[in-house]
Amino acid sequence: MYNLELQKFPWASCLILSLCLVNHSAFADRGDSLVITGDIVNLRSGPSIESRIVKRLVNDDEVIEISRYEDWVEVATNNKRLDYGWIHDSLMETIDGTPASSSSENEEFITFRTHFVTFIKKVESQTGITPFTEVEQLDAGSLQLTSSDDWISLDPQQRDNILSEVFDLWRNYVATGLSVLVEVIDENGEQHMMMFR
Asked: What pTM was computed for the model?
């Protein structure tokens, strides 16, 4: 009888087969956390096997989805270092829920960081500089940005403009009405600026 049912609806067998073959990460969306399933996975500069390797990730490393192109997913590493690149979607799967014990970061900060990485890429493409290399949430109301030498060499007005955009990102992607203290340090840990809005 089962075979008769499939003969009546030939498209049903194709649908069942395609659902069985769909990769777990196909159901992910921008801002979702994904976990690396391969032993060693290359994070690439573009959506191609020929693209330069940016970094190597290992099994169970977490990343955040930024965008998709065909079978490739643009991701940001789920740590304070702002590494981003492309991974084939067959090498990742979605995370149903991140246990609180595995990360001290809240969902709002993870969402903020996803948009922050996109912002950094925009600044890089428009100006040729990378203003910040890391972002870390110190507590619910404060961020620490690690600046690049490029950002330090900018004039004060340009630095303020970039920081204003960071504050705008915070307001747009974190609960409305929450202020944030932003501390900017260099790669040696020396503080260069602190602003509160």
From this structure: 0.52
Distance (Å, rounded) from C-alpha 138 to C-alpha 165? Answer: 19
What's phi and psi for 118, nearest 5 deg? -60, -40
Q: Let me know: does 85 contact 74? Beta carbons within 8 Å.
A: yes
Domain 22-97: assigned CATH number:
2.30.30.40
Chain segment 79-109, per-residue pLDDT in tens: 666 678 899 988 888 876 433 223 445 677 8
The CATH class that applies to domain 104-196 reads: alpha beta
In sign, the C-alpha dihedral spanning 156, 157, 159, 163 is positive
Question: What does the block give as tokens for 56?
Answer: 């190597």
CB 148 within 8 A of CB 178: no
